[in-house]
Amino acid sequence: MAVLITGGAGYIGSHTCIELLNVGYEIIVVDNFSNSKPEALKRVSELTRKYFKTYCLDLQNREGLEKIFTDNKIEAVIHLAGLKAVGESVHFPLKYYENNINSTVTLCEVMKKFEVKNLVFSSSATVYGATETVPISENTPLGATNPYGRTKQMIEGILEDLYESDHNWSIALLRYFNPVGAHVSGRIGEDPSGVPNNLMPYISQVAVGKLETLKVFGDNYSTVDGTGVRDYIHVVDLAKGHVKALEKMLISKGVESYNLGTGQGYSVLEVIAAFEKASGKTISYSIVERRPGDVGICYADASKAKKELGWVTCKGLDEMCQDSWRWQQNNPHGYNVETKLLIRS
Ligand code: WQD
Questions:
Q1: pTM for the full model?
Q2: Residue 197 has pLDDT above 90, yes or no
Q3: Which of 96, 261, 300, 326 could form a disulfide with 186 if both were Cys (CB 3.0 to 4.6 A apart)?
Q4: Ligand 1 center to 68 CA (angstroms)
């Protein structure tokens, strides 16, 4: 029986594939490669010495998706595919609603048709919106403040309604805090297209000389040094959280949300200092105005995932920076290579 990973070629997806393969799961990847590269999957295969099927398909292609379920014995789905840039979602909201919501509804309809009712969904801490109460627990009222976050919040609601309509479903809603870092090999990592929006890839590109200087968005928040505080979580710890959630979904019914964070916040200046230590490089930066929509401080209460999934994070900020830097140094232009990979359509 296989686990279907949608968006498996992406940053979170490729790291999750490795962790699933390493503990013996059979996996199948479906990805439309709109924001990822087949090279990532070739390297997943090399690193794990495991083969797995890959389908190039948009999830809204219902016929194509049904064929995957017909041709393969699938027991669960880890649904990571989706558009995820906050800034882009503000400019193109309809693209985000259409893609993220329609593809999830189509996926669930096909899963229902084939009686596959175990689902792990990639949600986000952005569903909490501008809450200033920290640490943030799963009971914190939701209030996404941008179209990207609202698609995640709406999808959580859709999945809760799905469970209410049929209690045979097992659904985990994983609310990611700030994923950073890379696999220790330096062979897979975050490969943002264009200028990165997020802090860690931006700092990495300044360190490797691709970008001049970092703009620090505000230093007048009520935090340790005035700059924004976030809960950075190593992507390998995050990937292992998906394995734990899958294991729980395979033995229990219900729909549950889980914060995947470390419970520890770090400021922008603390991240810069840690990255300088890890890379031996000086990160040039200037303090500018706050970024609209940012909150000052955000970090998780991750005790529910520890208690119910038996999951804890193991990697600290230094390791996150070391692994980010190794990936960036080894792949200054990301996965910008031609790949020979058998991809089914
Ligand atoms: C972190 C801190 C910024 C860039 C995002 C989105 C979403 C989510 C994860 C999936 C903040 C500061 C950043 C820069 C800066 N992904 N910063 N200069 O906004 O906390 O959340 O992360 O769900 O993509 O919600 O992450 O990395 O953009 O910002 O000063 O050039 O770094 O102000 O304090 P964010 P981020």
A1: 0.97
A2: yes
A3: 326
A4: 36
